[in-house]
Amino acid sequence: MDLTLPLEAEALIPHRLPMRLVDRLVEIDGKNGSIEADIKADCPLVSEDGMLEDIALTELIAQAYAMIKGYNDLRSSEPVRQGFLVGIKKLTREASVASGDTLRIDIRTIAELGDLAIAVGEIWRDEQKLAHGEIKVWIN
User: What integer best gives the mean pLDDT of the chain?
Assistant: First the structure.
């Protein structure tokens, strides 16, 4: 498989529309990277007034982490493994997200302990930080 960036999400994670919230892996540096997400009006987590539900912020970070993990699995010639979100710590929303926004999710992996990983994510719209938080993921 060609691993040239940008790389579409469906090559790296099992999520499919309408529950796939991330779109492209645009930067990778080992276990860290940046992912883009185009927030569409028909997303099931966008309210009738066009705003992304806050719970989706956690899912954006989790799916962005999964893309980095999937990329590294493929790069190591391993099958892409599934991950399960098992914890959220200190998720802070600083501004709302609306349909039509293109977001950048920056992920930094801070620990891997066997099958458990801890990552910090920041969600940006242009130069405005919208949210940040820490997730714990179990890799199967």
Answer: 95
Furthest C-alpha separation in the chain:
44
Cut 0.90: pTM above it: yes
Pick one of 1.10.260.40, 3.10.20.70, 3.10.129.10, 3.40.140.10 as the CATH number of 7-139: 3.10.129.10
Q: Say what the alpha-carbon torsion angle 1, 83, 129, 45 is, to the nearest 10 degrees.
A: 100
In sequence order, which residues have a C-beta less than 8 Å from that of residue 55 and are 6 or more positions away?
45
Where on the phi/psi map is residue 77: left (φ > 0), alpha (ψ -120 to 50), or beta? left
